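Researcher: Good morning. I'm working through a list of sequences from a screen, and I'd like to move beyond sequence-only analysis. For each chain I'm collecting a predicted structure so we can compare shapes side by side. This is the next one on the list. No need for commentary yet; just the structure.
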Amino acid sequence: MSGKKAFRPKARRPRGFEDKPASVLRAERRLIEAAVKVYEAWGFDPLQTPAFEYADALGKFLPDEERPNEGVFALEDDDNQWMALRYDLTAPLARYAAENFQDLVKPFRRYQFGDVWRNEKPGPGRFRQFIQCDADTVGAASPAADAEMIALAAEVMRGVGLADGEYVIRVNDRRLLDGVLDRIGADSPETRGRILRAADKLDRLGRDGVADLLGKGRKDESGDFTEGAGLDTAGTDAVLAFLDATGGSRAEVINRLDGIVGGTQSGAAGLAALSDIHDALAALGVGEDRAVFDPSIVRGLGYYTGPVFEAELLATATYDDGQPIQFGSVGGGGRYDDLVSRFTGQAVPATGYSFGVTRFATALAALGRIDGDDARPFVIVLNVEKDQIATYLGMAAELRAAGLRAEAFLGGGNMGKQLKYADRREADFAVIVGGDEREAGTVTIKDLKRGADVAAGIADHGRYLEAQKQEAQFTVPRAGLADAILKRVNNNV
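Model: Good morning. Structure tokens for this chain:
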């Protein structure tokens, strides 16, 4: 017999990946269900694409164009082709639309939700795997299609229980910033990309941080240095003035921007799109309180070609110490007319909306707008007599057939330990059938939530036991088990 010690791997999660408990998974599922209900009502059809795409299909639209081989998780297939886990759901949609272009009914309207993976440095609230939920229209060039996406985003906010005034959709057009860059002579694609990434960080870094990134560069708190766009003072001021041109009605923002970018071809195109979007939003009933025009919204990804927007939560919750929790942007989207054309060689207009499910669900849970608990009452049938387990399993099945959540306890231990298990599972009721109940043809039901309420107000043990029997425990005929629990749930004892 070998004396070599058996290898035991350390139980640990890879950095940037998370385990999700039941409450988180249920909250995410309810958010997805609410969004899907809106998407279906607006005529979008579901689509599922695989987790892996060929890496060249992602191309230059990886998250960081300066590190294109480090932004995704990739592996080489047995035919020497590189595959990568999808970075988002938009690039796979573009591949699907190109591959099936001749057979698609256009405009093609689809929604999809699923995991995406990003090989980036993880941090607080920044994971390498998370769920996205998207809706897109492929084949519609009109700004009305962009307006519909903006209205769709606003409707999702309503659909998850937010009231008007607790959210806002902030809208811009990337061509407006292009007009500014044309005016200051920022012609290099590399410089333009850095300016876009800098502007997209306005809400996180503030005006001074963006100014640094527009100029020579910025060193963050960890000491890492990000090279800037290299603009001079006049160029930096021009970009900042554009980002500041917000506030007031949508018409007022358009007029203000006209004085900044109206004399350029790109700027004029962006202004015309915003004007059309404003008219379409008004027709869709999306008022000025639900969607505003904001030049600071630029969206960091390089594939956007026209209107862009972000869905922002205005409602706040508080931490345990009373400090407010600011949620900020929970989703966004825009027009990306060049993404499908990478495959087809012909212009294919497209626009879409996407939100990160985990971030949005966490915010909604903090606001009390979404619940991570199963709404159905939860019943545990105790395993009082070990030779009666088949009977207890049958009772649990009977309760489930009546619409309740139910399980028969399958572990070991006495009744006290089983009741502790029921408490830890946050069960609503425990069902007890021992020898006395079997002979009498009855069942004893403990209302665990009522029992907790009773216990909170009684210190004396004897009074506690008596109160439990009178208020939190009752006996009914065996045949009336499910009905008795349902009546109790409905306060119809």
